[in-house]
Design a protein that fits this description.
The complex is a heterodimer of chains A (about 450) and B (about 375). With about 450 residues, chain A is mainly alpha-helical. Chain A contains 19 helices and no strands. The chains are: A mainly alpha (about 450), B mainly alpha (about 375).
Chain lengths: ~450, ~375
């Protein structure tokens, strides 16, 4: 028995094991980078505070603040939403060979556009107003980002400098708009007027109540129908199902009827169902449906970049502009498109912040901040993979949320989080540093990776 | 050695000669246009004193931008992109502030206040430069030894500086602190400062401004008239050829990048040793990046970069003048001016700028 096994030639490794190994290979470096960064952060705290106990207090406070305390987890998720959207924006840029440091500015412009459209009228129903506001934010961000894109493509002005300059212009512009033309009359606080309740992003707790309005239920049913349409279409691609419905007409009837049926059921049943049972009952919980929007955006970006012609062109321009130009792909058009897409996502992030997070449901004078640089680190940590971005955005969101309790419980300033994040970015951007730290030998030369950024001339 | 380096040197000279006149012309035109614009905005109130004040302020504000641009010139002539100047300046600004303050507390008991002040300011300057060099060392090792993406490495420096300064500021400096010794006094150059218009603009400034002006000449001389400069430019244009000729590419890059760190440290010290006697975590406000734009505007030459920095300084000082004469204009609008100027300048007021050929690429020894 054992003889026969030994006599057999060495079998190739099982396919599932190699997939596992690949997943570990992809996760290993970011995980190692994160752990090392936290270890160094601990060292910094230890040295500056002088006691090892403070380190445990600080990290304990961080974890309690991020996950364990009341509404800790949901607040972490609230912080995750803009991180996901902004990191997707940065990732689209990277994949297209552009370093968009200007997401923060595009975020502001999106927010101010949303704040403007949101308060224009209170008579529109949510089914029209909410998409309209999201569109306005996206458009604002897209235009703001397309300007550096166009300048880059046409004049060669490097996007790193122009987008940063556009950031500062955006900050001043938004400051001016909020304190001048768009300032809410009759309040002492400098902020824009409250947006129409119809334009708000619902908190999860408010969903059952919102669904009592038939128009809202209709909107939700429509979205559910659309999602089921996509799912059924994907299912119909499977060979077993494909064989049964030979003609494409048949398939179309199948998925359309499926979608309509699901939509009708959702319209009729959802309001009653959510009224009867709904897990989110905490009225003060700020977690809002923007989270679903962000997750959907991650899926959409993945589909766009890896499953469409446009995405292929963008990635090709990013990987090798000369080859792309030789293949007849317009560099100018794709650069502008990439920046506009990137800016649109950043604008949506700003919109979400106004519609779902800010306490006044408006744009206050000094709001947000610091999402921009963090999201660059997140995108790099995830190696620009949309699903990786969801995970690492959650890590950063949790850190951001837990930092306050950390500062309270241990007296360690929350800026240590920035140091840790910079270290994460350092280790991710320069894998040789981590390999050198842990004396890891590279087994084989990894395939040539496309450069992340380009010099001034490109 | 001869052929390759000679072509490089000829090319640089020729481009320099072309650049110089264009930049000077554009600079002069820019100043003139700005003066007209200023008078249009504030209604013809900008007479002699106002013009001189605005121009003196221009040179003052241009100082950190020029330091940043010089740092960029030093690094990029050797082929290393340095986007982390902002972060280094922020760190240097904080270190300068802290050292200035605390060493003054130590010295003031044992000697008279004026001496204690100047000693602690000098110490602060040295410490600022040291902290900037330390951060630059990280950038140098990561981008030269480990060959990481240089722009990412610079971004790391920027984020790290935000974290480190914010952290140390909150831990140690955000309390009730005793009064510090103040900023560097204005140094009047004897005789020269008495010349009517030029005197108050050029020769009644603080020491770092003079250092900046001297550096412009020094870097120009070193880059274009010494063997070291020739080696630097060779490494920045064609490292392989330079290596073949026996120039140590890595060492040249390390030296240049670290010298850039020294210059960025001086620029950072300007914020807390010359401008104001306080530190706040958003102090540098994008001036490091504007410095990079000035460097590109000046086509990687020190004098061009200086003129670029002066243009942005002018935008800034006009903002101040406008806000004095026309308080009714919302302050945010003129504040956008320097940033918009940067974008306009970058998009080709000077045509497409050609960076050193090997700028931003790690050198792989064969």
């Amino acid at each position: 028995m054992s003889n026969s096994v030994a006599a057999q030639p060495a079998r190739p490794p099982l396919p599932d094991r190699s997939t596992l190994r690949r997943v570990f290979g992809a996760l290993g470096m970011p995980l190692l980078a994160t752990v090392t960064a936290f270890a160094l952060g601990a060292l910094v705290i230890w040295i500056t505070s002088g006691s090892l106990e403070t380190v445990f207090q600080a990290y304990g406070g961080l974890i309690r603040g991020a996950f364990i305390k009341e509404r800790g987890l949901s607040e972490s998720l609230v912080a995750t939403v803009p991180y996901i959207l902004l990191s997707l924006a940065v990732a689209i840029g990277f994949k297209s060979g552009l370093f968009n440091i200007g997401v923060e500015g595009q975020f502001y412009i999106g927010a101010v556009c949303a704040a403007f459209i949101g308060q224009v009228t209170t008579s529109l129903p949510a089914i029209i107003h909410l998409p309209l506001v999201l569109l306005a934010g996206a458009l604002g961000g897209a235009i703001w980002a397309a300007i550096p894109g166009y300048l880059k493509a046409r004049t060669g002005a490097h996007e790193v400098i122009t987008t940063i300059m556009m950031n500062y212009v955006a900050f001043r512009l938004v400051e001016y708009i909020v304190s001048g033309p768009l300032r809410a009359p009759g309040t002492s606080a400098v902020q824009t007027p409250r947006i129409s309740p119809a334009a708000e992003l619902w908190t999860f707790a408010a969903v059952p109540q919102r669904l009592q309005d038939p128009l809202n239920a209709l909107g939700v049913a429509f979205i559910v129908a659309l999602l089921s349409l996509i799912v059924v279409r994907l299912l119909l691609r499977r060979p077993a199902w494909r064989d049964r419905l030979q003609k494409s007409g048949q398939r179309r009837i199948a998925y359309l009827s499926c979608a309509v049926a699901v939509g009708v059921i959702a319209f009729v049943a959802l309001p009653a169902l959510t009224q009867a049972w709904w897990p989110f009952q905490d009225q003060y919980d700020r977690l809002h449906i923007g989270l679903l929007l962000a997750l959907f955006a991650a899926l959409a970006v993945w589909w766009l970049m890896w499953r469409t012609t446009l995405g292929f062109e963008l990635r090709m321009v990013g990987a090798n502009p000369s080859a792309a130009r030789y293949a007849g792909i317009s560099i100018t058009r794709n650069t502008v498109t990439a920046m506009a897409l990137s800016g649109a996502l950043a604008g949506v992030a700003g919109t979400v912040e106004v519609l779902g997070v800010s306490g006044c449901r408006c744009l206050p004078m000094f709001f947000s901040s610091g999402y921009g640089f963090d999201s660059i680190a997140i995108a790099l940590l995830a190696k620009n993979n949309p699903f990786g971005i969801v995970a690492s955005a959650f890590l950063f969101g949790a850190m951001r949320n837990g930092a306050d309790l950390m500062e309270l419980s241990s007296g360690v300033s929350k800026y240590i989080i920035s140091v840790i994040q910079a270290l994460v970015l350092l280790f991710v951007a320069a894998p040789p540093v981590v390999r050198w730290l842990y004396r890891i030998k590279t087994e084989q030369r990894t395939e040539e990776e496309a450069p992340l950024t380009r010099g001034w001339g490109g | 050695m001869s052929t390759v380096t000679k072509t490089i040197s000829n090319g640089a000279r020729a481009s320099l000669r072309g650049t110089r006149w264009v930049t000077v012309l554009i600079g002069a035109f820019g100043f003139f246009a700005a003066w007209i614009l200023l008078n249009l905005i504030i209604g013809g109130q900008c007479r002699d004193k106002c013009v001189v004040d605005t121009l003196a302020q221009t040179l003052r504000v241009a100082t950190p931008i020029a330091f940043a641009a010089f740092c960029g010139v030093m690094c990029e002539r050797a082929g290393v992109v340095d986007i982390g100047i902002e972060g280094k300046m922020l760190t240097a600004a904080m270190v300068a502030y802290a050292v200035n303050l605390f060493s003054f507390q130590i010295f003031k008991n044992s000697m008279d206040v004026a001496t204690a002040g100047s000693i602690s300011r000098s110490l602060a300057l040295v410490a600022a430069v040291a902290s900037s060099v330390l951060m630059q060392l990280l950038h140098a090792v990561v981008s030269i030894k480990f060959k990481a993406d240089q722009i990412i490495s610079g971004t790391v420096i920027n984020i790290m500086a935000l974290g480190v300064t914010g952290y140390l500021y909150r831990q140690f400096l955000a309390q009730n602190l005793p009064a510090g010794p103040g900023t560097f006094p204005i140094l009047q150059i004897p005789l020269l400062s008495q010349i009517p218009i030029i005197g108050p603009i050029l020769f009644q400034q603080q020491p770092l401004t003079y250092i900046m002006l001297i550096l412009a000449f020094l870097i120009h001389y070193m880059l274009f008239y010494t063997p070291w400069g020739l080696r630097t430019r060779a490494v920045g244009e064609h490292p392989r050829a330079a290596d073949t000729l026996g120039i140590n590419v890595f060492r040249t890059r390390y030296i240049n990048v670290l010298l850039g760190g020294v210059i960025a440290g001086l620029g950072g010290a300007w914020f807390t040793l010359e401008a104001v006697d306080v530190f706040n975590p958003q102090m540098t406000n994008g001036l490091g990046f504007i410095g990079l734009a000035a460097m590109i505007f000046g086509k990687w030459t020190p004098f061009g970069a200086l003129i670029g920095a002066m243009i942005f300084g002018l935008g800034n000082s006009i903002t101040t003048t406008v806000s004095i004469y026309r308080p009714d204009i919302p302050s945010q609008l003129p504040q956008m001016l320097p940033y918009l100027l940067t974008i306009i300048v970058l998009t080709g007021a000077v045509g497409r700028a050609t960076p050193p050929a090997a700028d931003g690429t790690a050198y792989e020894k064969q």
